[in-house]
Amino acid sequence: MEAAINAVVLAAGEGTRMRSRKPKVLCEVLFKPMISWVTDALERAGIEDICVVVGHGSEEVCQVLGDRFTVAMQTKRLGTGHAVLQGEAFLNSHRDGHTLILCGDAPFVDEDTIRRSLESHLQSGNAVTVITAELDDPTGYGRIVKDGGQIAKIVEQKDATEAERAIREVNSGAYWFETAALLEVLHQLQNDNAQGEYYLTDTVSLLLRAGRGAGTYTAQSEDVVLGANDRLSLYKLGEIARRRVIEKQMRQGVEFVTLDGIVLSPDCEIGADTTILPGTIIKGHTVVGCGCTIGPNSLLTDAVVGDGTVLNASQVTDSEIGSGVRMGPFVQVRPGSRVQDGAKVGNFVEIKNSTVGEGTSVAHLTYVGDSDVGSGVNFGCGCVTVNYDGSQKYRTVIGDNAFIGCNTNLVAPVTVGEGAYTAAGSTITEDVPDGALAIERGYQKTIENWAGKKLAGRIAKAKKKKEEER
């Protein structure tokens, strides 16, 4: 984009109808705060110089945004025009450019709409370009009133006449301004309306009176106007977004047997020929390779999964799963873990902050925590790496091709060497050299006829009961 451009995002709303302690813009659509949908779209459109106007819950909003953007504070909510005025210092520093004003709770303003509306704005030479949409039911939205095909003003629903309420073209709440022109009229706004607020929409009339040009850009999708004021409308946004994301994945070659219970993040990436089974939830920036089977009933959060991997009823968080891995059912992979190619992780296994090498088998009922496990290792049933002594955590190291017998406890810090064995039922507290067998058991003592004496009374009672029943 040749013109120097920037954006102001309005994110000060409290959203009392959400019945949430969180600021409105932090309410999530597909696990992603609404404001992040907006800022991501801006950045994808090439706009990185952004000011966010915050108010209620400003610390929480800033925590989500990080330090990427300029922040302006609106301590009193006196309308959209007043909100933009709080970013006056930011606007003054960009006086020679063009500014996009948009709402932090309208998540479907996409990068294509941003780019196309800017092109229209620059080509027209107007001081303001309002992004609009055509709705079958415009109830609740500000109407675009035109005279001779040109925009004359924007009228809010509560201030509109009966004829104006019949207009189907509505204001999306997003505008392109010549920044200098916007600054000229911001201080002229009045609050003589039904709400007693300073409407940003009134800048259009003010600019027209000053002899400046005003125009509109009609978005291709009516969804750009959609926002959320309560939980019901937030749910509807989620359903629209869910359908969009799944349809996008289908077009890219991902297979869905049914859509029951499937929710995918808009930021996830899934390779072709991967099948997503019912009950699967994928969050964050998860990346799944080609030819995988994910689900049923699996949860991936910011995970990376290689090609040809099967995750059945498994949960993976902030971890990497290699190619050709077979995992589940009922597996949890906690943050900081890496399961390498060809590994097998069976039912009721938990892996935490550990590396599991290529071709290693952790078949069932095992906990691997804070461990570095080599390739070709076999874990028997019921093994535990004992990583915590009550105050500190320690690591376990297991060499390639080691064999960990059933019900082995590896008390960290401990190392099991390459090709070494541990006998079933052992509690290993010392390092095991390469190729060695470690056995830690008490001697078995067998007392002949002990059980018979112990059970003699019970057996006699049982015989007596049977005779009585006859």
UniProtKB/TrEMBL annotation:
Region: Pyrophosphorylase; residue ranges are: 1-231
Question: Which GO terms of the molecular function aspect are on file?
Answer: glucosamine-1-phosphate N-acetyltransferase activity; magnesium ion binding; UDP-N-acetylglucosamine diphosphorylase activity
At the top of the EC hierarchy, this enzyme's class is transferase
The entry describes its oligomerization and partners as: Homotrimer.
- Supply the source organism for this entry: Bittarella massiliensis (ex Durand et al. 2017)
Where are the annotated segments for Linker? 232-252
Where is the segment annotated N-acetyltransferase? 253-470
Q: What protein name applies here?
A: Bifunctional protein GlmU
Q: Which catalysed reactions does the entry list for this protein?
A: N-acetyl-alpha-D-glucosamine 1-phosphate + UTP + H(+) = UDP-N-acetyl-alpha-D-glucosamine + diphosphate; alpha-D-glucosamine 1-phosphate + acetyl-CoA = N-acetyl-alpha-D-glucosamine 1-phosphate + CoA + H(+)
Q: Which residues bind Mg(2+)?
A: D105, N229
Q: Domain Nucleotidyl transferase, which positions?
A: 7-219
Pathway as given in its UniProt record: Nucleotide-sugar biosynthesis; UDP-N-acetyl-alpha-D-glucosamine biosynthesis; UDP-N-acetyl-alpha-D-glucosamine from N-acetyl-alpha-D-glucosamine 1-phosphate: step 1/1; Bacterial outer membrane biogenesis; LPS lipid A biosynthesis; Nucleotide-sugar biosynthesis; UDP-N-acetyl-alpha-D-glucosamine biosynthesis; N-acetyl-alpha-D-glucosamine 1-phosphate from alpha-D-glucosamine 6-phosphate (route II): step 2/2
Which residues are UDP-N-acetyl-alpha-D-glucosamine-binding?
Answer: 10-13, 24, 74, 79-80, 142, 156, 171, 229, 334, 352, 367, 378
Protein encoded by which gene: glmU
The record, for CDD domains, names:
GT2_GlmU_N_bac, LbH_GlmU_C
